[in-house]
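Complex 527.
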Amino acid sequence: MTTTPAIEITGLTKSYGDHVVLAGVDLTVPVGAVVALLGSNGAGKTTVVRILATLLRADGGTAAVHGHDVASRPQEVRESISLTGQFAAVDEVLTGRENLVLVATLRHLPDPRGIAEDLLARFALTEAAGRRVATYSGGMRRRLDIAMSLIGDPPVLFLDEPTTGLDPQSRIEVWRTVRELADGGTTVLLTTQYLDEAEQLADRIAILHGGRIIADGTLDELERLLPPATVEYVEKRPTLEEIFLAIVGDRPDRPDRPDRPSQTDRPDRAGGAR
Amino acid sequence: MTTELLRDTVVLSQRCLRHVLRSPDTIITTAVTPIAMLLLFVYVFGGAIEVGGGDYVDYLLPGILLITVASGVSYTAFRLFTDVSGGLFERFQSMPIARSAVLWGHVLTSLVANLVSVALVVLVAVAMGFRSGAGVLAWLAVLGLVVLFTLALTWLAVIPGLTARSVDGVSGFSYPLIFLPFISSAFVPTEGMPAPVEWFAEHQPVTSIVDTIRNLFAAQPVGATGWVALAWCVGLLVVAHTLAMATYRRRTT
Ligand SMILES: Nc1ncnc2c1ncn2[C@@H]1O[C@H](COP(=O)(O)OP(=O)(O)OP(=O)(O)O)[C@@H](O)[C@H]1O
Ligand SMILES: [Mg+2]
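Predicted structure with magnesium ion bound:
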């Protein structure tokens, strides 16, 4: 048993120009926990994940993964994490198998092919293993993407909206994988817009809003945040959605989520200021 | 650290080379335009161009080789851009690898792919009557210059590859590079140009590189021009590499 949390974030800030995205985020994720980071579009979920994954430098505050500061010890952090970004990051020109072998080779693991075959079977990709990823469906890509992230059994996993764009079956598939990983002791920080996903998977839920974590706890704990008056009138257990909306409050301006931004629209990929 | 960089570079170069092998059209396309220019200038304009003795194809080939490289590196920019926009770049950057290996994989692949294209163009030129009296050392010197020139342009191509917002932005950068040889001694001697143009032609890198390669092919002494050419290549390489690495550091943490 270790006392160092898997992830420890204190006072994290990040702005793009005048646009304050993170205004002092505090979050602690214990080892082995599954924590869901909830937030509307543009709340800064991806920004938090990218800072933790050593891809983006914070303006202020600290973040540590397994006790390693992300800013000063990035290489140690990379040793203990794996990132599944918001958009599937797979090599379209290679086959599914080659993608997995590539990651296993880069991680200097013995028997990359064996690892690839195992994961292909586990993610129902064996049949398509020899095909170029360009021919894969969105769900297959995402499964391959997640499979690539599991190579090397990193103790801390970041999943940025892992089931966005997946059909219900693939989503259940991903959920099952996350639960298996959690059972195996992997710490998972996942971001999601789907409240049911957070309810299904997470031990703890953190709500990111206005640049801060405005609520953080188990579903039961969050329930208590509801105004008592509301609780009296609900017969069944309130859904997380109700809790979320009640806490966040200002909902009418909630923007519609675009289906899938085009490549050039991806702010976190194209670089530079918008 | 260094052995890790080497090991990861090898792995990522293999990956990139696989991309090239799976779309061999990129090598062909790279070679086709210069070959078309070679044919056009030798068989259509060549009769009207006075280069002072010798076959025009012998005169033209060095410049065409530089054009080949200038158009070839746009594929490097494109492949890197695809990695960046598709998220693979960030995946690699978040992994415990020697991070710059991601760039080196692209750079080495660019070198290999461009040398293959250059070899194709040389073969076509030979079929068209290009002959060289150059010995092994002279050929090696030509190879060395072409390698340096390719590396310089490749590192330059890394910049749009990392920063472009769209595919058009990526390919756009190579147009001026392809155009540069036209205002040099690559196609016609600079003496016939209007004074300001001649001054520019004489003082831009392509002319000295082209003249040096031409003299090496003709088994003539290269003289001081050879050193100028080498200085241009090394200087461009250093500047391009410095700028590319600065861009890379700004792009990553
Ligand atoms: N490179 C950038 N330049 C300027 N603004 C940016 C950049 N990257 C992100 N932003 C802005 O930061 C804010 C937070 O973005 P982020 O991607 O972290 O949100 P998110 O919670 O992941 O949203 P989503 O649910 O849409 O994925 C957004 O308003 C976004 O426009
Ligand atoms: Mg996001």
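The first strand of chain A starts at residue 7 and ends at 16.
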